[in-house]
Design a protein that fits this description.
By secondary structure, the protein is an alpha+beta fold. It contains twelve helices and 14 strands. A hairpin with a 4-residue loop joins strand 12 and strand 13.
Length: 383
Amino acid sequence: MHGLRRRRRGLLVLTSLATAVLAASTASTAAAKPRPADPLQRQVEAIHDTGAVGVQAEVTSPDARDSAYAGTAVMSTRRPMPRDGRFRIGSATKTFTATVVLQLVGEGRMSLEDTVEQWLPGVVRGNGNDGRQITVRQLLQHTSGIPDVGPEISALKSADGYRAERFRTYTPEELVGLAMQEPPKFSPPGHGWSYSNTNYILAAMIIHKVTGRSWAREVKDRIIRPLDLRDTSMPGVFPSILGPHAQGYAAFGTDTGIDVTKLNSSMAVGSGSIISTARDLNRFYAALLGGRLLARAQLDEMTTTKYAPELGVRYGLGLAEIPLPCGGSYFGHRGELLGYVTWGGATRDGARTAVVYVTSNGGQDTQKAMTTLMGQELCRTRS
């Protein structure tokens, strides 16, 4: 960061002048390409260097909050990433949904051992899928074997599909019906592990059936309002992100990303449709792991994990358990929905949290850099 400051005695004046010129040149170069001293900023810039358009990370502890930004809010511009910008959190939504289900379990209004058929008669049927054999626990744990509806959504598969279908509205019943066109990933339920967004669409439908109120209303009244998550919302069929936000970009397997910010996310009700901010997500994870949202028995159910081979980590009920480089583990969830990818989580006691998101699909190098940031920042209190 600084120019050469070495002083040498006994040298000729000419040599001293040359040293001064070199010092000025070095200082100028350093000023043009600063190397940030803040470890979080360095990690955010490392993520940006993998090809992400924009990056934000925020880390919190009981007495501090640190944020860092890199890249731009709009591709091919100099517009900076917005402070506390909103973004689609994708599958991090699943932790919200699982929390509501576990609250209802704690209230005695339902059980994790209830079958899907008990609450949604005839909904999970066809091609070997049978809701009479599948429990609520297996939905939340991704051990139901129910096929993922994601591959059936045209807007998520290609640029042409996105342009044609980005404003399409789906009902939960329609989504489950699409998934039922495929056979189970494994059988019987509980004897395998396969990630499926359909599981959480069904969980949202069960919440509605148990409470008589929509999934969105229950999440709002049980989580968003009590925690004062002012920038967190369920957009329903509304396709835009309100408030400050960066544009999202998706390449759909090509070398060129397109703007996919506008999206009717009704295909992800319960599974991936929430809009939030890094600050709000950190507050959510701190409250959840800190025991403010669930009783001890239900939090223990959520954090009791089994190996999830597709993810390479352990998975509980709407929450993954990820190893820490310093030993032990943290709990969190990855999220992705067209153009926005996030990782967020907290230490076991909720005392330290971290959230990072990028505004692009995020290749393997991007993913690796994001998980590296999570591990290093959640280990920092142990260093």
